[in-house]
Amino acid sequence: MDTPDIHYLRAAEGWLELGNPGEARRELACISPANQSHTGVLSVRWHVEERSRNFGDCIEIAREMIRLNPNDSRGFMNLANALFFAGKTDLAYQHGLEATARFPSDPAQPYNLACYACQLGRLEEAKSWLARAMKVGDPLLVKKWAKNDPDLEPLRQHYSVDDL
């Protein structure tokens, strides 16, 4: 991506970091039509809509990310997360299974499955998925995520994260 579009994208990222998805959305609108489907633009757009709680839009953006770049795990993860945020946890879990099979070395995929399983009341599955995330990723980083993630609170009530 060339200038000025890369500058608009960076500005959108900055507004998003500052907690202003509306300004980020305005910056994204300035990007040329040729670059609107760029992976980086779609990723920021997904985060803008997620922050704005427009989960239906997040689902559509994630599907477009998958269609345009099926070898990038972000689209799959964004789709599952958008479904989860939209209250479709069973469907998010199913998409998470597909993503984990497709990207077996990405620790974020089994980590998200642990979160979904936990929210579905499947604590043993959640524990197993969290262990897998630690196996394929940095165990200290995964434990750090797990210690603070509200989606894993039911698991933490039964198990110490350090013991997983």
**Helix coverage percent:** over 70%
CATH class of the largest domain: Mainly Alpha
Q: What is the oligomer described by this structure?
A: single chain
Average pLDDT confidence is: 96
Notes on the protein architecture:
The protein is mainly alpha-helical and 164 residues long. It has two domains: 1-52; 70-164, Serine Threonine Protein Phosphatase 5, Tetratricopeptide repeat (Alpha Horseshoe), CATH 1.25.40.10. It is built from ten helices and no strands. Helix 4 packs antiparallel against helix 5 (73-85). The longest helix has 14 residues, at 55-68. The radius of gyration is 17 Å and the shape is elongated. The chain starts with a helix and ends in an 8-residue tail after the last helix. The model has no long low-confidence stretch (mean pLDDT 96).
Features:
Serine Threonine Protein Phosphatase 5, Tetratricopeptide repeat; 164 residues; mainly alpha; 71% helix
Write the layout of secondary structure elements.
Blueprint: H1 5-17, H2 21-29, H3 39-51, H4 55-68, H5 73-85, H6 89-102, H7 108-119, H8 123-136, H9 139-148, H10 153-156
Short summary:
With 164 residues, the protein is an all-alpha fold.
